[in-house]
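Before the break, one more example. Copy the sequence into your notebook; we will annotate it together after we see the structure.
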Amino acid sequence: MSATLRIDLSEVLAETGRSVDLDDEVPLDSLTIGDTVAVFEDRPRVRASISNAGEGLVLLGEVQAEARMECSRCLEPFTTSLTGSLEGTLTVPEERPAIGEDEEWYPIDPDGSADLLPAVIAALGIEIPYAPLHDEACLGICPTCGCDLNRDTCTCETPDPSDEGPFAALKGLIAEDEAE
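Here is what the structure looks like once it is written out:
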């Protein structure tokens, strides 16, 4: 059984202007975006309001979580706070064409309920960094010996950046050309 965050919207659907508030835990233990894995310390918490605007239900709110990740430079685990914005429209799929192409929308099932988990995952996914860092000044690990340069100093030779890369072979050609 996959996780859901199902909410009954039948009363909100019945009357324009009616709304329902949501303050609940999200059934997620972790989230993987690209190569980044965020493991939640506690379950994320969603606080949102869903209002009947006449042409659909409007979702506004936020989701908050404390996530443990691995620093992309030194591979040390660290914990960070994530806060994602929830915005979108909930509607029955047949009314989808009335919603703008650039708007987020989530389907309302025939029984009058909707699963908000995809909206929560999207909001948290945007907040998870592509290359998480525990500190912007992280020195990373030595590519030769693997020592953590934040804690130790290694004795490995640092390669000259001009000797690396796809154009390193051209360096000698320029020197030869200038000698002529």
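The longest strand covers residues 77-91. The chain is about 15% helix and 35% strand. Try to locate both features in your own notes.
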